[in-house]
Amino acid sequence: MRKLYLITFASEKQRGSISDRHKELLDLLKTQYEVNLVNIRNVDQIPKDELKLIFITSRYIEQQIVNHYESLPHPLLLLTDGYNNSLAAVMEIKAWANSQSIKAKLLYSEDESIINRIDTIYKVHSALCRLRGRKIGVVGTPCPWLISSSVNYLLAQRRWGIEYVDLPVEEVLAEYANVTDDEVGEMAAEIAGNARTCIEATPDDLLNDMRAYKALRRLVDKHRLDALTINNNKFIEEAGTSTCVALSRLNDDGIPACGESDLQSIFTALAMKELTGEIPFMGNVSAIDTRANAIVLSYCSVGTKFVDGNYSIRSHYESGESVAVEGYMPDGNKVTMVKCGGESLDEYFAASGITIAHEHKERCCRTQIKVGLDTPVSYFTDSPVGNHHLLVRGDYEELVNAFFESASCKMINESWQRLGL
């Protein structure tokens, strides 16, 4: 069971035990968590990555919060059930925190909705902890057209605790040259056999792309990478292989992977995996339908699991060479569109939506997914966080917002209210 640590503040004037006086709230929390009450004197004994709330059980403890401020976890997550005038105490503490520009959140509810709020905080906290120390492999330099997608490695590490690892394309090419067709023949046959159809691409094309997968997978294992992005255009120039199926296979393995050495998108993909457990689809914004308030994302690679195994093998759209994955997602699926950007990864867009049926276009990359959004598509014309955006299966907008807000990121979304609609 998940653990929850409550750093407990109680007045000496309070009668009876905390467990008895606050039994209703504590019993509710115990349905979802192993609850541990901890005195402020023992706060340093709580394991580092466990979630810690500040449990205010009465009045007359306000000055204690000020006195112990440096020892408390930040932001201040102030939990109260209102008994013994504890809500009044939390209001005073919150006002003090606001006056000192200290981040503090008041957690109070008279019903079971408090569990949902704490669950969101727990998921965000856990994802942030898991992100620390994660390594993102960057194979080759970012494609030159990504003029607004750069990342300052040092600032990103300070904010998120992640590490970008630059790797030369030549290292992958050397591994690629050592992979034999026999090593990947069975996987290639499986991918072809499970596809709806194979068009344009030859069996040799598919074998070569699977050799690229094997080479990239060796790099992941060798450098202990948690995610990977590659300048696939450079690779196709050097090896004649697109890596589209290779990236698809890595995503199916649970390793976030995308093309063009897009530093912002691969971080977004890794963050969404840690937050939701889902591996996203990265695509170009290929069309904006203002009447339907919808956009189309397209790309030549998608994890086959993302589309529930419903795909075809095609040629790479822009080069006309090698292979690509054309995935099909039915209409009516709840999804979340998201992108984290800025040089220090400090701004983001997030919107829930639903997939919409649409006509496939041959003038776009192979996988094409149309999404009707719950926020105005004017964001894409007025203030987009780059071209590439990512799609996560499921409605996670509230959770994604909480995640990025906890890292003090700026939301870029337009809103219906702001537009007067």
Q: What are the key terms here?
A:
single chain; alpha/beta; 421 residues; Rossmann fold; 24% strand; six-stranded antiparallel β-barrel; L-fucose Isomerase, Chain A, domain 2; five-stranded parallel beta sheet
Oligomer: single chain
CATH architecture identity of the largest domain: 3-Layer(aba) Sandwich
Distance between the termini: 45 Å
Largest beta sheet: strand ordering:
10-11-16-15-14-17
Overall residue-averaged pLDDT value: 94
Largest sheet descriptor? 6 strands, antiparallel, barrel
* CATH fold title of the largest domain: L-fucose Isomerase, Chain A, domain 2
Strand % is 15-25%
Q: Total domains, how many?
A: 2
Helix content: 25-40%
Question: Stretches where pLDDT falls below 50 for ≥5 residues?
Answer: none
Number of helices: 15
Tell how many strands the DSSP assignment holds. Answer: 18
Radius of gyration of CA atoms, rounded to a whole number: 25 Å
The general outline is elongated
Structural class: alpha/beta
CATH class of the largest domain: Alpha Beta
> Which superfamily, in CATH terms, is the homologous superfamily of the largest domain?
L-fucose Isomerase, Chain A, domain 2
